[in-house]
Amino acid sequence: MNQYNHLLSFDLSSYxxxxxxxxxxxxxxxxxxxxxxPCGNTAQLILLMRDTMVLKVVQESAISLLKSQILxxxxxxxxxxxxxxxxxxxxxxxxxxKLYVFEGPFVSSGLVLMQDLLNQGAQAxxxxxxxxxxxxxxxxxxxxSALDSKSADQLKFKMxxxxxxxxSLKDFYQTT
Length: 176
What we know:
Blueprint: E1 6-12, H1 15-25, E2 31-39, E3 42-49, H2 52-66, E4 70-76, H3 83-87, E5 98-104, H4 107-119, E6 123-130, E7 136-143, H5 150-154, E8 158-163, H6 167-175
Antiparallel strand pairs: 1-3, 1-4, 2-3, 5-7, 5-8, 6-7
């Protein structure tokens, strides 16, 4: 997967809309389906791409094809290496001084938020999707320093900061 450097994520009003986009754009060369899954009465589609030109073309074409079924759509160029392993729960890191927990409504916006936080030097702890209707997306990162949370506000994610992390919380993350 590391040859795919860019991501286009859709929160869609139906699973069928996701299948339609996969059918239209995925060629398993320049555009690969990373995930298509139901989330309550909506669906999540994540496409990976090698080239920014393909990324922009797919984004524009998807909007013209299914605009009314796109609840949220975000693109990320130059993916941080921690992002997808964290999404797949394959990223284990030790907690630093601060733990940031962000909660919001869209997976696509959560991915953009995680990318922004990683770009600020945070370490990815967890990316969790509560696949109910409505869904809840939880982005958790750790850092020794303060993080700028302006993007969280813009993406409609609420933030909880846990400062001075105790051993019991460290143990919680080491055993899960």
